[in-house]
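FAQ

Q: What does a record look like?
A: Structure on top, sequence underneath. For example:
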């Protein structure tokens, strides 16, 4: 199994909200890449491409550096295209979705804006970029960059709920996937609907506590590898825990994280965390644990090794906050499952189905909203229930799982959690639960299931109908409680 980390720093040419030196972080990031000889990717926003104080820094650097495009649309780019600026008049950059991101523009406008940025990039560096990134990117833009400019990789934001107005929720959790031509956020199930560019997930989310941290009323709602966060990316104990979790546990597919930081935070805020992370990355590389790669390099490796989206897993066997919890993630091109072992009980935090035909919100047109929402198709979601002020639980009857056994099978791409006669196995297209004494699942207030029988759960979400097949099931659905039983083995089938 391969352990990969990408150091990706993106460069803005302006930050209207703060008084901050934008050049200083880039200088120090280059200095640390040189000190440890670490391959590093820098992604340029258009307003940094047109400023020589940024581009001149990279003229004489060696090939361990990669340069690409950070695709956020700002005032200099919009005006270069001859379009009216929709943002705050006195700002050269506006973070709202309908101003700064591809969904805010029609497809002909996206094409013009991307071409201007790519042509400027080539004018400076002599070649077109092989990697791109943004907090959110639509499927048309990714496919266009692949077809015209032959990019190798793309990177987007981690899962988050509402941060800066961007909600990405329920998709392929970490690592990377091949997106659907209809929806950049969801894996395609078939090659003919697949964009052949892997989309990697940014920011190194804490796989145990990031998922539902805002439900716990914490001081921050971001627990990630970003060096500016004192509770996480700049805390040496947390960073060590994160690296051990991601890179020292057996997993399916490959292990992955993105390190680095955008320059708009300023060097003072990121210095401590950034430096300690570079030291740790260098240590892991020297020990042969970790492969430090440029983003496009990882994209090419992905394409050479996977024809379609692979199965990947993350296991968190040690609780950084010493609450005794364990967490398991399983992602395939058909679904994701997020399990939490709490006080011996096996709790489902969410199950989302992936459907390549479920279109993204900006597939055929632009949006006017300041916010955006990318999502998958929930069978159950703890966070959605909380947001909607609805009590909901997904409980799997099991023995005390405190001393349960965890296994992965790379040949069959399965993840197994077992104790005594109880067995939960994740396959690429289904989940199987078995127990000689019988199986029982109970979902209180299943918000998305509108009809259930012994062979299928029929679901409806945001105008879209979908289903999860059942095998070996006996279903009872009344009084907002869905109970699914089986004499010995129950299958939930997503293909």
């Amino acid at each position: 199994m391969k352990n990969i980390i990408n150091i990706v720093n993106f460069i803005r040419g302006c930050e209207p909200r703060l008084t901050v030196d934008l050049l200083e972080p880039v200088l120090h990031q280059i200095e640390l890449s040189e000190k440890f000889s670490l391959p590093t990717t820098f992604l340029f926003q258009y307003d940094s491409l047109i400023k020589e104080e940024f581009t001149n820094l990279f003229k004489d650097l060696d090939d361990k550096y990669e340069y690409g495009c950070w695709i956020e649309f700002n005032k200099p780019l919009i005006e270069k295209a001859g379009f009216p600026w929709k943002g705050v008049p006195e700002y050269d950059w506006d973070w709202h979705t309908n101003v700064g991101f591809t969904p805010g523009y029609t497809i002909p406008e996206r094409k013009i804006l991307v071409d201007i940025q790519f042509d400027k990039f080539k004018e400076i560096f002599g070649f077109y970029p092989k990697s791109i990134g943004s907090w959110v990117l639509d499927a048309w833009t990714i496919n266009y960059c692949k077809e015209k400019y032959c990019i190798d990789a793309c990177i987007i934001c981690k899962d988050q709920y509402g941060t800066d107005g961007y909600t990405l929720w329920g998709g392929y959790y970490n690592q990377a996937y091949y997106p659907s031509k209809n929806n950049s956020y969801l894996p395609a199930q078939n090659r003919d609907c697949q964009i052949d560019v892997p989309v990697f997930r940014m920011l190194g989310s804490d796989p145990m506590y990031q998922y539902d941290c805002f439900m716990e009323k914490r001081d921050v709602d971001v627990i990630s590898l970003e060096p500016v966060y004192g509770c996480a990316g700049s805390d040496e104990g947390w960073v060590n825990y994160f690296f051990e979790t991601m890179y020292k546990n057996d997993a399916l597919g490959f292990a992955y994280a993105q390190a680095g930081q955008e320059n708009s935070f300023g060097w003072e805020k990121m210095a401590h965390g950034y430096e300690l992370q570079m030291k740790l990355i260098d240590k892991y590389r020297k020990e042969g644990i970790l492969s430090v790669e440029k983003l496009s390099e990882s994209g090419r490796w992905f394409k050479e090794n996977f024809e379609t989206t692979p199965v990947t897993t993350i296991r968190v066997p040690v609780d950084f906050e010493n609450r005794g919890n364990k967490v398991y993630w399983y992602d395939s091109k058909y679904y994701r499952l997020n399990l939490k072992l709490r006080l011996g009980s096996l709790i489902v935090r969410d199950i989302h189905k992936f459907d390549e035909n479920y279109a993204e919100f900006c597939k055929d047109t632009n949006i006017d909203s300041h916010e955006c929402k990318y999502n998958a198709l929930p069978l159950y979601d703890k966070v959605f229930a909380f947001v909607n002020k609805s009590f909901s639980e997904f409980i799997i009857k099991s023995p005390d799982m405190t001393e349960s056994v965890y296994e992965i099978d790379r040949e069959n791409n399965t993840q197994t959690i077992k104790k005594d006669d109880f067995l939960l196995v994740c396959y690429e297209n289904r989940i199987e639960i078995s127990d000689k004494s019988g199986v029982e699942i109970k979902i209180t207030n299943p918000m998305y299931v509108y009809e259930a029988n012994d062979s299928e759960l029929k679901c409806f979400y945001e105008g879209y109908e979908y289903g999860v097949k059942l095998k070996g099931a006996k279903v009872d659905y009344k009084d907002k409680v869905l109970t699914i039983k089986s004499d010995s083995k129950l299958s939930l089938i997503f293909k």
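Q: Is there anything notable about this one?
A: Residues 439 and 486 are 5 Å apart (CA to CA).
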